[in-house]
């Protein structure tokens, strides 16, 4: 398998108990989370354990998250422990209109990656680098992630980037700077991940599905992947992509959903595991360089992740995904 480096936040998701709104839920359950952390653990469970550049507070929640990453086989060499409290992402009850996540705690601790600590040495052994977009909402975080993307691209790594735009985390007056950073990182990206909602909020494009994937390709990626929720995903690539110029769409799988938190991250880990495998068959049966086949595998990974609560804790392993795909074939 290709050596993979993931960069971005690790935080705690607070999942609500029974109740129609946050005001009247009967309590919360804490679970490990953060989109890049979910992707890192997802890759580890799929047999592609990555290096992970992240930041953790020195509070009990930071201890909890480091212990979780250790248990999941994600190494701590690039973990930065800093003074302060871990960010909490409070998840809204199912069916609530409006914001799905509300963030509490120190933005500096979780998203304040230092530009002078970009792990360029780790790029010597990495062939694939995945960057989470939420860190771009922090002034130093966006500088650091820009530097990482540029350095990885210059060294010939495949860079994947999850736009994952969160307006609630953008300080007043900094929206233009965040959107500019997204554009810059896309310019150094090989594979872009996004949803219609994410991109519409940035103002980069208002189109959807395959049309949006085409718009994202204009910023520089050779492949753009747009997730469609329960409807699956669509991807488009140029002739610069290892899998050639193509457009592929695969529908989602019907399952009994319990909690959709982190489903997009599960999808991302599944797709990276397949595409980064190259001609190696470690990610599962079939040709990992076929974009449509990789989308189906990623959709299956996402489908299995929604059958239990918690974005990270519900992530499936490779054997479960392979069995699910074979069953549904």
From TrEMBL:
Glycosyltransferase in keyword set: no
Pfam entry (one): PfkB
Domain called Carbohydrate kinase PfkB: residue spans: 1-317
Keyword list, A-Z: ATP-binding, Kinase, Nucleotide-binding, Transferase
Single Gene Ontology MF annotation: ATP binding
Keyword Mitochondrion carried by entry: no
InterPro entries per UniProt: Carboh/pur_kinase_PfkB_CS (IPR002173), PfkB_Carbo_kinase (IPR050306), PfkB_dom (IPR011611), Ribokinase-like (IPR029056)
Domain of life where this protein originates: Archaea
Family: Belongs to the carbohydrate kinase PfkB family.
Protein name (record): PfkB domain protein
Lineage: Archaea, Methanobacteriati, Methanobacteriota, Stenosarchaea group, Halobacteria
